[in-house]
Write a structure and sequence with these properties.
This protein is α/β, with parallel strands linked by helices and about 290 residues long. The chain is about 35% helix and about 15% strand. Helix 1 crosses helix 2.
Length: about 290
């Protein structure tokens, strides 16, 4: 039955006309996701992956993020790098819950879509959208600009998904002493625990849709551990890992990397979730605040 579900999901999870919102796909994904959560619960009953759900995230990250910040102090600030048109990302739900932050996207066409959807690329006190291709040389400047926009000396949440040099940009941030409370990083779930693997740094790297992307979970665990972070969980889909600054780790049950690792399950990504997402609720928030200030 498990293999049948996997095969059907792979077949349905395509870019054909109606498949992204195909009801049958959603039912199968939900069944497989529930089965996997049960397996996680048996081995690690306090694993934050069990708190996962989707509002606007690509998979189940929204629920995990919510569960983390329910337990630790925060001011509601974030940076997200690599989010395409913003409709499926890790911070849209945060924005609709009163957070403020920066979106960074390298594709000008995607930024144009965002601007058209919300009517601006900068809404003071809510969101600033930056169109830039981030690399080792520019990541710290982006971080400084982000802190200036949110008017804070620290950042609560940082999320990155650029399918390539992610590891090296996180490394530059940590070396530059830019240390948000929580990191969400995309890891390459092909590689099991113990394999410290990452792509070679290439400023011009663009993902070619092969397995040559990003870094393994062990590569990130080693890097983050050397800079004062603890692995909290990996989402059930086996795509994103969450790390927290050690000073906040005591708020959570900490499991080993081997216990937390989830292999890549791309047949569950993106998770289907009702009607097509949009940025209309975000636009409503921006327009509401603008009218109050006028």
């Amino acid at each position: 039955m498990r293999e049948f579900i996997r095969r059907v999901l792979r077949g349905l999870n395509t870019n054909t006309a109606n498949s992204p919102y195909n009801r049958y796909t959603q039912v199968l994904q939900a069944a497989e996701y529930a089965r996997l959560q049960e397996r996680v619960a048996e081995k690690t009953p306090e694993n934050l992956a069990l708190q996962g759900y989707k509002v606007y995230s690509q998979q189940d990250e929204d629920g995990i993020i919510n569960a983390i910040f329910k337990r630790i102090p925060h001011n509601g600030t974030f940076v997200e790098i690599g989010l395409q048109d913003g409709t499926e990302c890790n911070s849209l739900n945060l924005l609709l819950n009163g957070w403020k932050g920066i979106w960074v996207e390298g594709d000008p066409a995607q930024v144009s879509r965002i601007s058209k959807s919300i009517g601006t690329t900068e809404a003071p006190g809510i969101l600033k959208v930056i169109n830039t291709f981030v690399d080792r040389e520019s990541i710290l400047q982006v971080c400084k600009e982000s802190l200036a926009f949110v008017k804070s000396g620290t950042l609560d949440f940082f999320s990155m998904d650029i399918d390539g040099n992610d590891y090296y940009l996180v490394e530059e941030m940590l070396k530059g002493d830019f240390k948000p409370s929580v990191f969400c990083v995309e890891y390459n779930g092909r590689f099991p625990v113990g394999m410290n693997v990452k792509i070679k740094y290439n400023r011009e790297h663009l993902w070619d849709m092969t397995e040559y992307m990003g870094a393994s979970l062990s590569a990130y665990t080693d890097l983050m551990g050397r800079h004062g972070y603890t692995l909290l969980c990996c989402n059930v889909v086996g795509v994103n890992a969450f790390f927290i600054r050690n000073e906040f780790a005591g708020h959570f049950k900490i499991y080993s990397e081997s216990e937390l690792y989830q292999p890549a399950r791309h047949y569950l990504s993106p998770m289907m979730h009702g009607h097509p997402p949009s940025l209309r609720f975000l636009r409503d928030r921006i327009e509401s605040q603008t009218s109050k200030g006028s």
